Amino acid sequence: MTTVMLSVTDLSIGWSEGNALIEGATFEVRAGEIFGILGRSASGKSTMLRTLIGLEPPLAGSIEVCGRPPDHEHAGPPPFGVMFQQGALFGALTVGQNVALPLERWTRLPPDAVEAIVRAKLRLVELEAAYAQPPSTLSGGMRKRAAIARALALEPPLIFLDEPSSGLDPITSAEIDRLIATLAHVLGLTVVIVTHELGSITTIVDRCVLLDKESRSILAAGVPRELTHHPHPRVRNFFTRSAEAA
After folding, report:
1. 197 by DSSP, 3-state: which?
2. What is the mean pLDDT of the chain?
3. Inter-axis angle of helices 170-187 and 140-151, to 10 degrees?
4. Are 85 and 143 in contact (CB under 8 A)?
5. Under CATH, which number does the domain 1-79+159-246 receive?
6. C-alpha radius of gyration, the chain, whole number
7. Per-residue pLDDT at 6 exceeds 90
8. Strand pairing of 158-162 and 80-83?
9. Angle of helix 95-106 versus helix 140-151 axis, rounded to 10
10. If residue 211 lies in a helix (H) or strand (E), which one and from where to where?
């Protein structure tokens, strides 16, 4: 039986009743897969992510992450890591100090053990040489690698990535995609990726849901390559980059 890492049932998200971005969303993320939350700009992707990790309250419905609600009232660390859009690294800290933050917050490991773990995580994302550098010295792709390392610091079974390859040149974007796929395979991770980048979607995403602003719903769900032939024109247009009238 396949383990369900994320379960979403009849979820409505947004700012207030009657002003929902998405209503009645239901989907599951299975262990070991790379799952995409997709949609055009302003479709509710980032709000969905923030709701799934407990930063925004849902308007209705339920969420279970690794078998528990995504709240912050539990004594232990969250069962997931997060890479926020643009990395969200603290500029006053070095790269190593940024990656160390979850370990310092949730463990009592001695400093030498924390440093060893941080260096190991940076090595995983091919960024160990930047250990002592401030984030301001890093390129966009390097900042995203550092943020992924921080998301992996506590060795969670599940990570959420918000637009990990957006804003990058095509080669760097492809390198980030390959890194995500490799980490998922080598570490046995489950990955939930929020993106609108078609290259990432068709290359590394196993299954996905497509959020739709007009219908305020999940307009389609399934394997990305199969959705290019979906009967709904807005779905078909998204996966084929078509601008024809929907």
Report:
1. coil
2. 90
3. 20
4. no
5. 3.40.50.300
6. 18
7. yes
8. parallel
9. 20
10. strand 207-212
Cα–Cα distance for residue pair 62/37, rounded to 1 Å: 17
For residue 161, give both structure tokens. Answer: 């990535």
Q: Two tokens at 74? A: 């539990």
Q: Please provide the DSSP assignment of 60-91 as one string.
A: EEEEEETTB-S-S-SSS--SEEEE-TT----T
Q: What is the mean pLDDT of residues 117-122?
A: 97
Give the other-Cβ count within 10 Å of 8's Cβ: 22
The domain locations on the chain are: 1-79+159-246, 85-155
Q: What is the pLDDT of residue 246?
A: 42
Question: In terms of Cα–Cα distance, which of 19, 93, 32 is closest to 60?
Answer: 19
Q: How many angstroms separate the CA atoms of 141 and 174, rounded?
A: 10
| Beta bridge mates, 246 | none
Q: What's the pTM?
A: 0.92
Distance of CA 3 to the CA centre of its chain: 19
CA distances from 163 to 67, 166, 187 (A): 25, 5, 21
* C-beta separation of 46 from 162 below 8 A: yes
